[in-house]
């Protein structure tokens, strides 16, 4: 099979948020390399495209229920890939992971309740809690010898004051795949303090072959899992996500909130979930992608360590997001932003929105052709040399 990451896909001019958003939203020149939004510059698995084309050819696009076949597809996927036995009746559709998390927080907590997060973390975690008028209790991750770990003392103190915990597993942006032992400790603390655990596992299927993802729902059936095939199969624009919730009363409350917000799938969302999770051609495609992403991630990190020694990274264990420490560069976050966009001509995700300790970091998306990444590193090297940073 040909390399997935190196196949040509022109996204500029397609109304891509990642590519066309730079000019439309930020008024940047077209030669700025977009290495920010969390999608990949590749075509999805051919078998998924075929299934979507077949659905389109039917010409029927009315209001659509969450297909029982899609629920069964999710069930079979978790059984086959994550050793988790799921009842299809416990699987609900959602039009995205962030909407799912928002609706769960609204359904299962009250205004003023505490919600635990672990920064640095995907910015909507903080935003949706604040937007729902709940209190954020942060239990920041700790970095030890280039590896991020949970601070269980801080997590316990936060759980004492909260009613719900938003877990990012695998973690965005630091790329940790939490071990079974770590997740067991999370479950023990949550049960001790009567905290509902909601796990965002959207990057789980991009866990590198050298690591193993543990579905936290396999350790405690009361955990609510939110996920989607969108990251793994690069179909985020189809908004095909789901919630797994075994507790009947919680599920009823979540559905009540969803109904208020008119949550329904499109016909294409059903098709995408079924094709991604049941067609073995798509599964083989995904396994190749995971191998390529791990290899490319390691090569990019090696290149950064060789050519940009003032920048530091941790080695992710999943996905295509690289958390880079720029703290050795004598710049404020705002100065670095101006320099990256104007001089280096590279657009990364700034670390500040990921939490109070993220201001000296940038998140790089390595899910693109290798030559673009090499160009980005070369541009950084040239501009750092001009400023005598290397």
Automatic annotation (TrEMBL):
GO MF entries: transaminase activity
Enzyme Commission numbers on file: 4.4.1.13
Family: Belongs to the class-II pyridoxal-phosphate-dependent aminotransferase family. MalY/PatB cystathionine beta-lyase subfamily.
Top-level EC class as recorded in UniProt: lyase
Pfam families from the UniProt entry: Aminotran_1_2
Protein name in the entry: cysteine-S-conjugate beta-lyase
Presence of the UniProt keyword Lipoprotein in the record: no
PANTHER family: PROTEIN MALY
Lineage, highest ranks first: Bacteria, Bacillati, Bacillota, Bacilli, Bacillales
Coiled coil (residue ranges): 279-306
Lyase found in the keyword field: yes
InterPro entries: Aminotransferase_I/II_large, C-S_lyase_PatB-like, Class-II_PLP-Dep_Aminotrans, PyrdxlP-dep_Trfase, PyrdxlP-dep_Trfase_major, PyrdxlP-dep_Trfase_small
Superkingdom, natural source: Bacteria
CDD domains: AAT_like
Organism: Exiguobacterium marinum
Domain Aminotransferase class I/classII large: 44-380
Record key words, sorted: Aminotransferase, Coiled coil, Lyase, Pyridoxal phosphate, Transferase
Cofactor dependency: pyridoxal 5'-phosphate
